[in-house]
Write a structure and sequence with these properties.
Elements: E1 4-7, E2 10-13, H1 24-28, E3 31-39, E4 42-43, H2 46-59, H3 68-81, E5 87-94, E6 111-118, H4 125-129, E7 131-137, H5 152-163, E8 168-173, E9 176-180, E10 184-188, E11 194-196, H6 207-218, E12 223-225, H7 230-234, E13 238-243, E14 247-254, E15 257-258, H8 266-282
Parallel strand pairs: 7-8, 7-14, 11-12
Antiparallel strand pairs: 1-2, 1-6, 3-4, 3-5, 5-6, 8-9, 10-11, 10-13, 13-14, 14-15
Bound molecules: 4'-deoxy-4'-aminopyridoxal-5'-phosphate.
């Protein structure tokens, strides 16, 4: 069945959706995106995603073609038209089409594309068995706090993981883990402390990360927001990742080192269950 996608004001069958070859998203990766998850046909933590979208836009001096309420209306229309019960809604804003020039065009109209992807996020076999990650050098640019569509380094990291027979990659800079290819990275120390890298320009400020840290505080799980090394991760009792499209996902092996018991640990399982409960309760 063909999906309906949204392109600059129109709802179109996916095969008819078009963007100009002069679009700066295509030529310069001059665009930003957001991915909001959908549970029971409702959006999870969407207001936080739209706030981060506004920040990404403002860091790049880019305009949005629609206000937040109109964007939510399009998200909900796509969920309805595509009968999406579980999955994600993807949203991308680019600076628009203009003759190719490195300088930002003065008068380009920003472009907005949105589409849905159906996916079983809750009932995911990978969450039951845990995933294997490998480490790769972090070769990305220095503004990873902006959620831009310049994702080639992340895509290469993911592919390197698959080529190595693993599921995903953790990126490492100056001996310390920054984040996963498309997720935030955590360990649980043998002392039971949940550790994830502090916020800075070096990582994306994950919306799921913020929710999981809130839940950890409520559950009195001790948290340290600081960088950690691969050696510390190999010796951890648990490891995990978070993102809007995977929620909380246990990591059971890093570079072939089995983590803890080699199975999803209690902190990861608890945080996943709590996150899913809370997401369902507050989805809009
Ligand atoms: N880091 C990176 C590099 C990502 O691409 C993502 C997901 N887009 C995340 C972290 C997780 O962010 P969120 O929880 O908002 O999906």
């Amino acid at each position: 069945m063909s999906r309906t996608v949204y392109v600059n004001g129109d709802y179109l069958p996916e095969a008819e959706a078009r963007i100009s070859v002069f679009d700066r998203g295509f030529l310069f990766a001059d665009g930003i995106y957001e991915v909001s998850s959908v549970l029971d046909g409702r959006l999870v933590d969407n207001a936080a995603h739209l706030m981060r979208m506004r920040r990404s836009l403002s860091e790049l001096n880019m305009r949005a073609p629609l206000g937040d309420a109109d964007i939510v209306a399009v998200q909900q229309e796509l969920i309805a038209r595509n009968a999406l019960t579980e999955g994600v809604v993807y949203l991308q804003i680019t600076r628009g089409a203009a003759d190719r020039d490195f300088a930002f065009p003065a008068d380009a109209e920003p472009s907005l594309v949105m589409f849905t992807q159906a996916r079983a996020i809750v009932d995911n076999p990978a969450a039951r068995r845990g995933i294997a990650v490998i480490s790769v050098p972090d070769i990305r640019w220095q503004r990873r706090d902006i959620k831009t569509v310049g994702l080639l380094a992340s895509s290469m990291a993911k592919q390197a993981a698959l080529d190595a027979g693993a599921d995903d990659a953790w990126m490492v800079e100056n001996g310390l883990v920054t984040e996963g290819s498309s997720n935030n990275a955590y360990i649980v120390t043998t002392g039971g402390v949940l550790v994830t890298r502090h916020l800075s320009n070096e990582i994306l400020h994950g919306i799921t990360r913020a929710a999981v840290l809130r839940l950890s505080h409520e559950e009195q799980i001790p948290v340290e927001e600081r960088a950690f090394s691969l050696e510390e991760a190999y010796a951890a009792s648990e490891a995990l990742i978070t993102s809007a499209s995977s929620f909380v996902m246990p990591v059971v092996s890093i570079d072939g080192h089995s983590i803890g018991t080699g199975e999803p640990g209690p902190v990861s399982r608890k945080l996943r269950a709590l996150y899913i409960d809370t997401a369902r309760k507050h989805a809009t």
